[in-house]
Amino acid sequence: MDQEFMAQVETKVVAPTESPERGAAAMQLKGVAVSFHGRVAVRDCTFDVTKNRVTSLIGPSGSGKTTLLRALNRLHDLTPGAKVAGQILLEGTDIYRGDITVTELRTRVGMVFQRPNPFPTMSIYENAVSGLRFNGVKKKSILDEAAETSLKSAALWDSVQSRLKVAASNLSGGEQQRLCIARALAMDPEVLLMDEPTSALDPIATLKIEELMTELKKRVTVIIVTHNMQQAARISDDCAFLLMGEDRAGELIEFDTTEKIFNNPIDPRTLDYTLGRFG
Amino acid sequence: MSIVIPPPPDFTTHEAGGAEFNSATPTRTWYHYVLILASIVFAAVSVGFIGTILWNALPDFEHHTGTLLGGNGWQSPAGPFGGLAMIVGTLETSVVALVIAVVIGLGTSISIVFLLPRRFRNVVATLVELLAAVPSVVYGLWGFLVLAPWMLKTVIPWLNSWPFAKELFGNPGQQDGQSLLLASIVLAVMILPTFVAISREVISVVPNDLIEASLSLGATRWQMIREVVLPTAKIGLFGATFLALARATGETVAVALVAGGVANVQYHLLYPGTSIASWIATEFGEAQGNEIAALMALGVLLMLVNFGLSLISRGLVSRQRKVLAVV
To answer: Which positions in chain B touch A187 (Cβ < 8 Å)?
Structure first.
């Protein structure tokens, strides 16, 4: 890690707001910063993601929400020139330097993307079990059971159980996105990252996914990036507000329970944003 | 400095069905007729070309029924003119070349897109494009002067050290090295750039979304390539294969220089043979009468095969677009 970059990111670290009602942390971010070719995209991110809660990342475009989210399952590893500084702990293990392989990390931290992206050459069933197959599971009984459980968890089983062998591209956009959620859930992850999962969907499909998330958090910790303030207010328990700084790098402005962020924030910029005065 | 605000566009005079659109005169100026004429000339040339070839090939289809497809041996100048040696030779050289080119080419394309560091990527991609621009006679010359002696000295003794190699490839003994296998290797080098250029394109347009989705499920890079990228690009890769095959079947000069030019059906690849295109190129000079018709008939056959191959590859590429449009 080059000195200059470290000096840039070690400027200040916002302490996580203490909150007695929170439980154990699934993931902890300590001074996390991401840079591309030396240019800082997001920095100063320090907060805890509590187990079995939905944590939303909100902020205007360019504030680094998606960049931060993608650091959490090491998707930046693919991008040439990308560097991640600070610490990201999963159950206390540093995911970049600790004793964990990137493939193991990604089975424990699943991801749902902005656009529904089921594998076009696979059937619904094959999509649902694709993660298990990547990880060497071959036994049909295990795969069948995982497909049924995960499709049920994604509220998709009733509508697809009679056509599991059909290509996934035949499903509607909302169904495709729920299939992607099922595909991630089949791995039984501890954390599910969602990058604006409803931005490509119509209002009814959006509502279904939101209902699903409230159900999902009973078994998995959810971190969601959203542009939609109402969505963050409706579904998330905790909320991190990011904003682009003067040097065009995003930074964490405030982290707290969603209720406090929306009703009684400490920073005036948070209030301005949640009231829709900018962004 | 004053700011000039342009007036809003005035659509009222251009309403559909209005007077301006109904009158033909203002839009049809001289270049309209020049363009129409150009397309008529083009259509006439195409029809005339195909028509005259068919017309000149007709005597062969009339007098030598069956010999073109079934006959072996080419007796100049009286006949019979059997096309079997050329057809078999074209098939053998093209298919062997295709197998070599697809195996090496697919590996190259995957490396260019996924494995090589950025700076090597461009070097390899540029090399491939340079190879595509080399005239085919240069490939032929290189095959004859460089590859043939090397085959004689190194490849053939090595092949013969394997069991059953003599039965499979034949044992020509000492000669100048021209053979169907040499033609296949030269063809493979020639169609490699075509295959790599298209397959690289097809592989690189597989949406990043799918690649990230597979990695997010814990796939290794190799699993991502094998189980997501290649199946998604499959149809386009077949398209690239057919286009490369079309180039191999139609290649003339290079094959004429290295295949040996012997009009006998030859299943042992180490013996000399010939192909349709190279046979036409080497024989037309002394041909008269029925031999001209026979060569024309071979030309018709080659043309039809290449029409078919290019139609198939175009169909495959457009189907690949549809697959990607769903994503």
So the answer is: 217-218
